[in-house]
Specification:
heterodimer, A: 145 residues, 5-stranded mixed barrel, 3-stranded antiparallel beta sheet, 1 helix, globular, disordered C terminus, B: alpha/beta, 2 domains, two-stranded antiparallel sheet, 29% helix, binds zinc ion
Chain lengths: 145, 393
């Protein structure tokens, strides 16, 4: 599969760990050494206790689509459309929401609360970009967990 | 109201605009000079009265193609002025007149002019479509590092999930929200300076091209060329001014994660700003005669209708359905110049402010709202949000 057309990220001191892990197919966020809070995107300061002592922590398990969009506009000549973009949250990791492509289902059949598996795909500049696989329909209200 | 009601120490004294259109074959600098000259004359002032200059954005900020024009130092040089206060705005752009009001209220300037000049219409023609990130950005920096590598190359893609979530939570439909662009198009028909003036129907809206779902073509503002300038003056100069307008209250609060993707409750935007603004006045939403609320996308107007208390949370669909309430003769005539959806993407609340001032003066021509004494102006939403009440002097 060809790389997604886009603009490569400017990698910084704060985001280096994320992109390095992405290349290995792992999703890492910042975890506070002092209070344990997890956060994304990385800021180098804990948003809960303002500690500067943070370590990369891997997020595993299923995520849930908080919201999404299906993009139809060919913003650049080589952009393949349509594609779905999702804002994915992780019930076991409050404070973490990651934007990524959504695949594994017709983009027009994606819904809020759909369950996804963590994944990545080739993106611009040789970077691996978040690309979640939709694996299940969201549970009805009251059955979330 | 309190001792810090600095906005009462100033007035909006003038508004002026260049030619506005899909493409206007003049440079950004010439459009800017047209707008400033018109705004200063509109205030009843002369250019030598101006001692403060501000623009949005500042710093020649590289952004979308055609986004930044009319550089401050070139404008000052062209006008041959001495300035005591200058400002380039992006962060803190909660309202076009916010910074100038701070400067004038604190005596740093007596008459400050702020402008916003766009050439995004020309940029769109050059690029063969709506301007997107790309040509001006070799690398995706800062918050864009999480969006642009995915191919989400336009603000449309960044705002669309808000609309998805809002419609999911509150059961509001595209059939209902269609009435915002449809009604604003009817208003634009009465505005000779609007970009799109031919009637739009709900059917045309519903069958139009999807851009980034659920945002369709007619949910997007119109890339345009044009400049808007606004003059803010010290209250003490009011006797010298042609037709000043009061700033009753204004506020811009950021109370959540300032990021398009990390904002926590995407169904509710602008609430902290609206609440802070209403705390600064005894006026209530029911007192508002005309609303110029930000509409970069239809969903942004929805945020403001609800955050400002014109209707309840999740009720905007019912509020706008059929269009009567938000039309010229309705309870809350909204975006009477056509808004950015039909009037043109003059951006950052500049077109909205100009229209509010004209309505309060009774100078809005065929689209004049009867007895307009109180106007609401809001700008953007999410992490930069501004809300104000302007009143007849
Ligand atoms: Zn902590």
């Amino acid at each position: 599969m060809d790389a997604v057309e886009g603009i490569p990220p400017a990698v910084t001191e704060e985001t280096e760990a994320f992109w390095a892990a992405a290349a290995e197919g792992r999703l890492v966020v910042e975890r506070c050494d002092d209070c344990g809070a997890e956060s994304f995107p990385p800021r180098g300061m804990c948003r809960s206790c303002r500690s500067r002592s943070l370590s990369p922590a891997e997020v595993t398990g299923r995520g849930r689509v908080y919201s999404y969009t299906v993009n139809y506009q060919r913003w650049t000549p080589d952009l393949e459309v349509p594609f779905a973009i999702g804002l994915v949250e992780f019930p076991a990791h409050p404070g973490v929401r990651v934007v990524g492509r959504l695949r594994g289902r017709d983009p027009e059949d994606v819904r809020v609360d759909d369950e996804v598996e963590i994944g990545f795909e080739p993106g611009p500049g040789g970077y691996a970009i978040p690309s979640f696989t939709v694996v299940g329909r969201g549970q009805a209200a009251g059955q979330a967990g | 109201m309190g001792v810090d009601d600095f906005e009462r120490k100033v007035v909006i004294s003038g508004v002026g605009q260049s030619a506005i259109g899909r493409q206007v074959p003049r440079s950004g600098l010439q459009l800017t000079l047209d707008a400033i000259t018109a705004a200063v004359a509109d205030a009843g002032l002369v250019l030598d009265d101006i001692d403060g200059l501000a623009m949005f954005p500042g710093g020649g900020a590289a952004n979308l193609p055609g986004y930044a024009n009319g550089y401050l130092y070139e404008v000052q040089d062209a006008l041959g002025l001495t300035t005591r206060w200058r400002q380039g705005q992006v962060e803190g752009m909660s309202l076009p007149f916010y910074g100038p009001a701070q400067a004038v209220a604190t005596g740093q300037a007596r008459h400050a002019v702020v402008w916003r000049t766009v050439k995004e219409g020309s940029a769109a023609r050059g690029a063969g479509g709506r301007p997107a990130y790309g040509s001006t950005k070799p690398l995706a920096e800062g918050p864009m590092a999480w969006w642009l590598p995915l191919g989400a190359l336009s603000p449309v893609c960044h705002v669309a999930p808000y609309a998805t979530r809002y419609m999911h939570e509150y059961g509001v439909t595209r059939e209902q929200l269609a009435w915002i662009p449809v009604t604003q198009r009817a208003h634009a028909a009465l505005n000779p300076d609007a970009v799109y003036r031919t009637p739009l129907t709900v059917d045309e809206y519903l069958t139009s091209r999807m851009i980034s779902s659920p945002i369709c073509l007619y949910d997007c503002d119109v890339p345009a060329d044009g400049s808007t300038a606004i003059v803010v003056s010290a209250m003490g100069t009011a006797p010298d001014l042609r037709a000043p307008v009061r700033i009753e209250a204004m506020a811009g609060v950021i109370d959540d994660r300032p990021s398009w993707d990390q904002w926590r409750d995407m169904g509710r935007v602008g609430y902290a700003t609206a609440a802070a603004m209403w705390q600064r006045t005894d006026l209530r939403p029911a007192d508002v005669d005309v609303a110029q609320i930000y509409d970069g996308f239809t969903i942004e107007a929805v945020w403001w209708l609800e955050a400002m208390g014109f209707c309840g949370t999740g009720e905007a669909g019912d509020f706008v359905e059929g269009g009567e309430r938000i039309s010229l003769g309705g309870d809350l005539p909204m975006n009477t110049w056509g808004g950015q959806l039909s009037g043109g993407r003059l951006h950052a609340g500049f077109g909205h402010t100009a229209e509010a001032v004209r309505q309060l003066r009774g100078e809005a021509g065929d689209r004049q709202v009867d007895h307009a004494e109180v106007a609401a102006v809001t700008n953007v939403g999410g992490f930069e949000a501004g809300a104000a009440i302007l009143t007849r002097f």
